[in-house]
Amino acid sequence: MSYTVTLQQRLLQLKKIGADLPEILYEVQKNAAMRAVEAAVEATPPKVGDLRGTGTRSGELKQHWVTDSEVEPRGGGISGGGIYRSLLKNDLEYASYVNDGHRVDRHFVPGLYINPNSDQLEYDPAYAESGGGLVVGTKTTYVKGKFMTDKGKEAYEKAVLSELDRHIQELMK
Known about the structure:
Blueprint (H helix, E strand, L loop, with lengths): L1 H42 L16 H9 L1 E7 L3 E8 L7 H6 E3 L3 E4 L1 E3 L6 E3 L1 H5 L3 E4 L5 E3 L3 H24 L2
Antiparallel strand pairs: 1-2, 3-8, 4-7, 5-6
């Protein structure tokens, strides 16, 4: 007799889970998307105390993960096929180069010169018109990527699994 009661209780629990499932999936999706954005931001230059590279100093690349990503799940329900979608994205033009890595070539910059009085790099449009300038480049020919999106995806997958496990444990009590 107790076996039948236990089975009936379990059946009621499963029915309740089925009714709560869309809400649970929405919450899991949103939290996982937020973890993905946080991981991408954390992996994006500049790091604390590291100000190498002029493009990293503004922090604009980090900020765009937060403003460009869409963590609020869209879709779901019957019309969305039960699928929720969030987007981890960064719309800055150079974000893919920082993420994936890129080549660096030596190139000529018209009008660029080293001021002999101050040893500072300066630009003079008149010098550019006369054909003057400098060849600039780096010692390295390739800059390694930071793989910010990969780190965001890993954080997303980890968060989905842990959140779903937590919800299952709570619902099965």
